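Reminder to self: tokens first, then the designed residues, so the page reads top to bottom the way the pipeline ran.
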């Protein structure tokens, strides 16, 4: 039987555990929540990757790898993401459930100790992170930023978000900038580490086949010894509707033009209207039976791809499409026509049921992966209304036709970004 437990360890440090015996593994992760700030973004982004490399007990990558191998091939990894206007630094450990250990080893407890050792007791050299690891993580973070710039579909989405959310923290890149990463020095990362431990809000997640109480006690022991200061504010700014439409056109070396349209929905976590908005956007462009796919892509052949996505923390919808340059205006016109049809209620019960089924299937897929479940419960915890996937599915099934129309009616166009290839000289 699945059981969810939410507890507070100390001010600003929350623990959420979900025990599910169907898994043969357990996953625990610590997420540091910080305001997205230009001055701190790059240093923050480097930190979790540095911390996941080693600890004082296992001071290099080789010794850490040997210890993880002893724990039946466990893993320790890091990530950086944006959730609303927050930058989220994550370090996670995953391993075999205790009940499957050959000699009764307490694998989950050992992993919790290993994770906390990496976070709280790095292998400092004269108070600094080791130079080789620091330089390597700088290079790899720069490569991550460059890989996003080189993927023009990702680049176009990021540019639309940056234009749309100019002046908002969400408009910044999750890794900061290449220039800021390249300029980082080791003393800065030590100060960042101290700042994060003292002032960030922390969400701890423990998921899978494990006993929650001993893990809660372990994390509590480590976090309660910290000297915590004033917590940084992590509020997300939500814009209800677009005052005007911003338009930006760029030219780069691309074979296929990109059109990204950003919309304000006026609906965001933890509002009760989120399920209706999620369903409306799925019907518009989130499934193979959606209006954008069937009409803009299939029937009119205006796009190579055309899909809509919903960021429920920011209340933003993005419609992304790959088009021929001569079809940019036609595609934009038809996309708006399909949105208007949704707002008028021009859709069938079959379309509603198809979209509901698609979302419910996505929830079922999420429930089969501890990594995906971690992302789900993190967003729920940040929103302040932890909800199981079963509860979320029930909310989707309960959405009515009238609620979909009301949700769609709140959507307003904010930004149109287009990227085309450079014209060749005669």
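Designed residues (426 positions):
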């Amino acid at each position: 039987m699945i059981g969810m437990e939410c507890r507070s360890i100390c001010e600003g440090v929350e623990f959420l555990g979900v025990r599910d015996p169907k898994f043969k593994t357990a996953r625990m992760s610590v997420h540091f929540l910080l305001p997205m700030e230009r001055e701190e973004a790059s240093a923050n982004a480097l930190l979790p990757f540095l911390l996941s490399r080693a600890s004082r007990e296992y001071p290099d990558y080789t010794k850490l790898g040997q210890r993880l191998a002893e724990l039946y091939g466990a893993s320790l990894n890091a990530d950086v993401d944006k959730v609303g206007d927050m930058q989220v630094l994550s370090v996670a450990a995953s391993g075999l459930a205790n009940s499957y250990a050959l000699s009764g080893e307490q694998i989950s407890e050992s992993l919790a100790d290993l994770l906390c050792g990496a976070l709280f007791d790095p292998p400092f050299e004269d108070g600094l992170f080791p130079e080789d690891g620091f330089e390597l993580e700088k290079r790899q973070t720069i490569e991550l930023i460059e890989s996003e710039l080189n993927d023009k579909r990702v680049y176009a989405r990021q540019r639309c978000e940056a234009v749309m959310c100019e002046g908002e923290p969400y408009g910044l890149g999750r890794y900061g900038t290449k220039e800021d990463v390249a300029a980082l020095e080791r003393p800065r990362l030590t100060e960042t580490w101290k700042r994060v431990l003292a002032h960030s809000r922390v969400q701890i997640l423990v998921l899978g086949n494990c006993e929650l109480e001993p893990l809660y006690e372990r994390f509590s022991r480590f976090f309660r010894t910290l000297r915590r200061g004033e917590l940084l504010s992590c509020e997300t700014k939500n814009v209800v509707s677009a005052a005007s439409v911003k338009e930006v056109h760029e030219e780069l070396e691309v074979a296929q033009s990109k059109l990204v349209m950003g919309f304000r929905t006026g609906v965001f976590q933890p509002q009760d209207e989120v399920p209706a908005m999620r369903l409306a956007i799925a019907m518009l462009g989130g499934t193979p039976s959606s209006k954008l796919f069937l009409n803009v892509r299939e029937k009119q052949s205006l796009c190579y791809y055309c899909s809509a996505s919903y960021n429920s923390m920011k209340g933003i919808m993005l419609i992304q499409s790959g088009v021929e340059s001569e079809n940019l205006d036609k595609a934009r016109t038809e996309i708006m026509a399909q949105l208007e049809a949704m707002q008028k209620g021009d859709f069938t019960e079959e379309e509603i049921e198809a979209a509901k089924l698609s979302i419910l299937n996505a929830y079922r897929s999420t429930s089969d992966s501890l990594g995906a479940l971690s992302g789900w419960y993190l967003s729920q915890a940040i929103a302040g209304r932890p909800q199981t996937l079963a509860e979320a599915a029930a909310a989707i099934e309960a959405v009515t036709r009238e609620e979909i129309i009301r949700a769609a009616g709140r959507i307003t166009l904010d930004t149109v970004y287009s990227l085309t290839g450079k014209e060749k000289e005669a």
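The longest helix spans residues 131-150.
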